[in-house]
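Recap from last week: sequence in, structure out.
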Amino acid sequence: MVRTLYMYRNLNEHYHSVHGAINESEHIFIHNGLLEVLKNKNEATILEIGFGTGLNAFLTCIEATKMHTKIDYTGIEYYPLDHEKNLLLNYSSLVENNHYNDLFQKIITSEWEEAQAINTYFTLTKIKESATTYIPEINHFDLIYFDAFSPDVQPEMWTEQVFEKIFHSMKNNSIFVTYSSKGVVKRALKSCGFDVVKMPGPKGKREILSAFKN
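Predicted structure tokens:
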């Protein structure tokens, strides 16, 4: 079971739940996001807001590799961790098959601001920018992982202005998933045109949100 190792010092916020970062990410972003999208597609474009430790990208890369499915993944992060701290997390030794270590290494050490082919199935572009200023391509993404620091810590990341940009960046019949089920988040998403559904959360969290652009 992974425990939180790092806290961003200026925000006093953990990167991952103490109930297990891998279990939490798999439940929220893989099972309720990626696998739902891939029911109807054989490839996908993904935007992650809050790249953080790279865990969501790593788990997505593993799924793409196992399923032989091509994923084009963009991760936005304004507070990137340095390589050494990321590697200490040792996620690759804690997933089902630890022979994915080379993928984790490539994800963590890949250059920022340019597309990198991690393997045959997974292309990653990491961008150092805030979601408040980032302008995504219109009608481009099949799936959004919204994993920013919490609304209590970074309320400016969870606004209608940010969600509206994301809504317009998504294709029809695409999915937005996030760990926060706060009323203010749900209302902001609905005001931008999303259909919002509360879903059962992972261990230690009662609910999460899925939102759909139909």
